[in-house]
């Protein structure tokens, strides 16, 4: 695994593509440098003058804007564009995530509504979703890189809506296993694509709150799903068990959302049809200074290698493991845990609904705070504290029947859920180079799958109704996550300090003024360079 290479040596020899190589090798005298700058401005700034071979390796945004900023927009113009984006992208992302979470967790409702598979068979059906997810997440993301993101996402939603409705047909283990496997494969593209879309259209100080706007749907869908299941549970037709009605309703909702995404979701700023050409240019220029770029259709070997050798990638993998092993258990067994304290099915469905409300508001607050303070890791630390307290209460109260304390513990445990939205925001704000982005997002979600598979196995039928080992695992893993978050924050700040040193040495070595440095910063923005290759990329702690 690699840390940042030696700063000046790396960036002078390796970081630049041809345009930047020309600019970094300019002139030994101030006058020569100025002359070279004029030549570059005339030859390279206009997109039309960049060869198509070069364009294939650079960001798609360069088809609309130049290597350097040619058009100046006012803050009011940027705000107008952002408002137009906000009217389309967050609502659609929210609808997708709402549908995905409902469909993924439908099995939890079905488990207490007459679902025909129980015991260890139920466990296997539950984690088959994550097997399909894990197997297909890398192929689906590399396919999405070659296609139009919005269209690819829409077709996947339509397909899983049909799969959801097919859950109403079988009565035995094998077909349910296959259907859940397919459902996981089709849903595996959702979070990585939504993260990419947010990183394309929004600045770093806007990303966490926009990701929170769709991630909060986990909480809202938990409330909605609980009440839908509660209402459906009153059906008394023996030929149509209530769990089948739930699957038919949720599958129909997914199909409606899929068509909406196909019609309205933009694929990138350059292809946002609801924006005028001037507004598309403004949408691209407003994210130039973040150095994150938009997209590139080529799978780049060097970025793939960097993604797998960057120590920060594996820190994210570890963080995702620590926060989502608990999720794997709670997502599928929370209703069973509450019901184990003597509540009826209908009481359980109502009593678990507040957990969704808590998750909803926690995610919103954390996303807002994260953008306002430009922090990603500290918010995770603070939201894990109530979860750890709740897990400790569940462990301490195991075997008792103090229902009030147990319910309180179940409710406050739900705050941990927003930690994954912060990990998504961390990826969006701290990775550049489109192939590297795609790879790290896929690795994050693959890890999410592994964690959830392990999580389902921490709640074994033999441990019912208390499930003490599962509760202890939540307490231990999330306590470790706090220390990991603090280290990740320190490490990003350490890398930023090194990058400032890189820029200072480049400035001295080339005799650049502050204006020259700003010009080079602009020229790096849409070259599809990785965060390690680009000396002007700044990490968010």
Automatic annotation (TrEMBL):
Pfam families recorded:
MFS_1 (PF07690)
Keywords, alphabetical: Membrane, Transmembrane, Transmembrane helix, Transport
Q: Which domain of life is it from?
A: Eukaryota
- Where in the cell does this protein reside? Membrane
Note the topology in the membrane. Answer: Multi-pass membrane protein
Which residues are listed as membrane-spanning? 122-142, 149-169, 181-201, 213-233, 245-265, 349-370, 376-397, 404-426, 472-491
Signal sequence: where?
none
Q: What is its main location?
A: membrane
Keyword Isomerase part of the UniProt annotation? no
InterPro entries listed in its UniProt record:
MFS (IPR011701), MFS_trans_sf (IPR036259)
Name of the molecule in the record: MFS general substrate transporter
């Amino acid at each position: 695994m690699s840390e940042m290479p030696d700063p000046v040596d790396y960036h002078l020899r390796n970081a630049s593509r041809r345009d930047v190589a020309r600019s970094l090798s300019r002139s030994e005298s101030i006058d020569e440098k100025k002359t070279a700058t004029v030549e570059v401005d005339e030859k390279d700034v206009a997109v039309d003058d960049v060869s198509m071979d070069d364009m294939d390796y650079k960001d798609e945004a360069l088809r609309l804007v130049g290597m350097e900023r040619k058009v100046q927009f006012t803050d009011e113009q940027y705000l107008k564009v952002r408002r137009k984006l906000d009217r389309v992208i967050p609502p659609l992302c929210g609808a997708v995530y709402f549908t995905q979470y409902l469909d993924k967790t439908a099995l939890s409702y079905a488990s207490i509504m007459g679902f025909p598979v129980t015991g260890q068979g139920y466990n296997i059906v539950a984690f088959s979703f994550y097997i399909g997810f894990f197997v297909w997440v890398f192929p689906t993301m590399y396919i999405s890189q070659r296609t139009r993101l919005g269209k690819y996402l829409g077709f996947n939603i339509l397909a899983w809506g049909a799969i959801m409705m097919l859950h109403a047909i079988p009565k035995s283990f094998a077909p349910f296993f296959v259907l859940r496997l397919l459902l996981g494969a089709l849903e595996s593209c959702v979070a990585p694509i939504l993260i990419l879309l947010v990183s394309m259209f929004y600045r770093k100080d806007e990303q966490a709150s926009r990701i929170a706007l769709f991630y909060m749907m986990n909480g809202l869908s938990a409330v909605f799903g609980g009440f839908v299941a509660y209402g459906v549970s009153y059906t008394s037709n023996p030929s149509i068990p209530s769990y089948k009605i739930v699957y038919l309703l949720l599958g129909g909702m997914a199909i409606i959302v899929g068509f909406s995404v196909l019609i309205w979701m933009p694929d990138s700023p350059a292809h946002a049809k609801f924006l005028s050409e001037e507004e598309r240019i403004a949408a691209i220029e407003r994210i130039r200074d973040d150095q994150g770029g938009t997209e590139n259709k080529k799978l780049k070997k060097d970025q793939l290698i960097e993604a797998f050798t960057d120590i920060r990638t594996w820190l994210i993998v570890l963080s995702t493991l620590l926060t989502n092993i608990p999720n794997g258990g709670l997502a599928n067994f929370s209703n069973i845990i509450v019901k184990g304290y003597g509540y009826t099915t209908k009481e359980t469905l109502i009593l678990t609904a507040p957990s969704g409300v808590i998750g909803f508001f926690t995610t919103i607050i954390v996303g807002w705070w994260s953008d306002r303070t430009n922090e990603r890791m500290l918010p995770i630390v603070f939201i894990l504290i109530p979860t750890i307290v709740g897990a400790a209460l569940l462990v301490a109260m195991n075997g008792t029947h103090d229902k009030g304390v147990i319910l309180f513990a179940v409710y406050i445990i739900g705050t941990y859920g927003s930690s994954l939205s912060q990990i998504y925001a961390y990826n969006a704000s701290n990775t550049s180079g489109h192939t590297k982005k795609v790879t790290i997002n896929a690795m994050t979600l693959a890890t999410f799958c592994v964690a959830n598979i392990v999580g389902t196995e921490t709640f074994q039928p033999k441990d019912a109704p208390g499930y003490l080992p599962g509760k202890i695992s939540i307490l231990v893993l999330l306590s470790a996550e706090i220390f990991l978050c603090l280290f990740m924050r320190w490490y990003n700040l350490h890398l930023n300090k090194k990058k400032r040193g890189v820029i200072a040495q480049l400035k001295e070595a080339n005799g650049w003024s502050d204006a020259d440095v700003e010009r080079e910063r602009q020229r790096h923005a849409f070259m599809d360079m990785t965060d390690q290759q680009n000396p002007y990329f700044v990490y968010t702690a």
